[in-house]
Design a protein that fits this description.
The structure holds 2 protein chains of 2 kinds. Chain A is mainly β. Chain A is built from 1 helix and 7 strands; from the N terminus they run E-E-H-E-E-E-E-E. In chain A, the strands form 2 sheets. Chain A has a 5-stranded mixed sheet with strand order 2-1-7-5-6, with helices on one face. A two-stranded antiparallel ribbon of chain A has the order 3-4. Chain B is α/β, with parallel strands linked by helices. The chains are: A mainly beta, B alpha/beta.
């Protein structure tokens, strides 16, 4: 059975969030990396920067474009090396 | 491609794990679904089988995990239930891929979310749910030396403050909107719940360095581009904390979208169920937070009752009724204790966005006759969250009754929604 996210190890890897490089531990969810980069996850219809809010897949504030796929709910998505996250 | 099972359980938190394990042990073919990367739900999020045994709480997780693994229950993770295209069939989606699953009996354990109430600045980056920030820390966010204000209502504030402290955050204060008299009453019921009392005390002790103040709530959050400070009040005076994050949620509300889609009767904010956890829809049971916010113990007991019932073993289910009744009373007591106070209706200004998805302001909503009218005229609740945040807020702010949503109950790819249900081969029941 799976269910072992956030496996904290010393070795990690990098992803980019809005072009900024963030080093993350294996198992880190993308929304957590977005927060560590201090970057928005999306811009609202009125142009406000928004960042992860509910943390559990409900509010959709964390949805971003991940490796070219738009509208990904990043709080439920685990980082993989070299991932590119762009605010939607 | 379709698979069919005697019993499908939606939601792999404690309630769903207990239901799936029990039905499976009783000989049923079971599939346990969850939209997260692994089982455990919110309460066991981030628990790892290697380290969980260190705490009593973690050992409960380990016990259920081991029991589940010993069954032949299939566990499908990352799958979101979005629709019921035909009787006895659920449509699922994962990363844009659609799939139908047939079921004889369905057990819903979709859990709860935080109740979010709007105040000026609540859309600023850095303002999060209390459980939300805790979840992000469990998901790898490093909170070391970050200043956090925890506010809102409910036991989750102490739980969140405790795990944030453990992870190295500096808690500037914990602010509970409930009044002392309410909390004192709650304390008395805690005495009848030794497990919970110990849990509460442990949280409290760990966070002693931070102030835990009752009768106080957030007025506004401010900052350039992200939250920089939070102003609170006790109704008489105001004070301000500089902070990096505000973790703010007002107790919990059940995730009713799937039971509502299936037609389950909802009464008093929860799914109405009988003694065997069966909803008004034949073959559909609901357990855990869906029937009353009661946390881990209630979810485990109700999951087992529904699991036994799904296997036709009511006599075993019956042995758990007395235990469930005690936990239900506790749940009702919590709802009364942590009900949001009247003053919280006044926090939002005219410009405050109530609908975060569509940027609909309080001024645009005020004066509308109903949730339906608000949706039609302002797009409130029509965005990606489908009213999960703003509907709950509007219910409290304007007294509107929030009606059931339409499929898909989560944003899904067009191809998944349009996929034919003809391929589905439901099992009887």
């Amino acid at each position: 059975m799976a269910g072992e996210p956030a496996q904290m190890k010393d070795e990690g890897f990098s992803i980019t969030v809005n072009g900024k490089t963030v080093r993350v531990a294996e198992g880190t969810h993308v929304a957590a990396a977005v927060m560590m980069a201090n970057e928005p996850s999306r811009y609202s219809v009125g142009g406000e920067a928004r960042a992860p809010f509910c943390g559990m897949g409900i509010c959709m504030e964390c949805r971003a474009t991940v490796d070219g796929v738009p509208q990904m709910r990043t709080c439920q998505l685990v980082c993989s090396p070299g991932m590119e996250v762009v605010a939607g | 491609m379709t698979a069919s099972f005697d019993v499908v359980v939606v939601g792999a938190g404690p309630g769903g794990m207990a239901a799936a394990t029990t039905a499976s042990e009783a000989g049923k073919q079971v599939c346990l679904l969850d939209d997260n990367a692994g089982p455990g739900g919110q309460v066991w999020r981030g628990f790892r089988t290697k380290t969980a045994g260190k705490s009593a709480h973690g050992r409960v997780f380990l016990d259920w995990t081991e029991r589940l693994q010993q069954t032949d229950c299939e566990v499908w993770t990352g799958w979101q239930a979005i629709d019921r295209p035909a009787a006895g069939v659920l449509r699922l989606e994962r990363n844009g891929e659609g799939r139908d699953i047939g079921f004889g009996r369905l057990i819903l354990a979709t859990g709860a979310r935080e109740r979010f109430l709007p105040f000026p600045g609540w859309t600023l980056p850095g303002v999060m749910g209390a459980g939300g920030l805790q979840a992000m820390v469990k998901a790898g966010l490093d909170p070391r030396d970050k200043r956090v204000v925890v506010a809102g209502s409910g036991p989750l504030l102490l739980a969140a403050a405790s795990s944030l402290t453990d992870a190295g955050a500096r808690i500037a204060g914990i602010y509970e909107q409930a009044r002392f008299a309410q909390l004192a009453g709650f304390g008395l019921t805690l005495l009848a719940q030794p497990g919970k009392l110990a849990e509460g005390a442990r949280y409290r002790l760990k966070t002693l360095r931070a102030a835990y103040r009752l009768n106080s709530w957030v007025v506004r959050a401010e900052g350039q581009g992200r939250v920089e400070c939070v102003t609170l009040t006790d109704g008489r005076k105001e004070w301000t904390h500089a902070c990096d994050w505000l973790a703010c949620g007002f107790h919990l509300v059940p995730n009713l979208e799937l039971p509502r889609l299936l037609g389950c009767r909802v009464a008093g904010g929860y799914v109405a169920v009988d003694a065997c956890q069966q909803s008004s829809v034949p073959g559909v049971a609901c357990v855990g937070e869906l029937t009353g916010i009661g946390g881990l113990d209630k979810a485990l007991v109700e999951g087992q009752i529904a699991g036994w019932a799904a296997a036709g073993r009511e006599s075993e289910a019956r042995t758990l009724w007395a235990h469930r009744q005690r936990l239900q009373r506790f749940s009702q007591r919590m709802d009364r204790t942590f009900a949001p106070r009247e003053e919280l209706r006044m926090l939002a200004s005219g410009e405050t966005h109530i609908c975060r998805c569509e940027d609909v302001t309080h001024a645009e909503l005020k004066g509308r006759a109903s949730w339906r009218e608000a949706k039609l005229h302002t797009r409130c609740g029509m965005g990606a969250c489908q009213g999960r945040v703003c509907g709950t807020a509007a219910e409290f702010l304007f007294g509107w009754e929030i009606s059931g949503g339409r499929p898909p109950i989560f944003p899904a790819r067009v191809s998944t929604v349009a996929a034919s249900a003809e391929t589905a081969v439901p099992m009887g029941g």
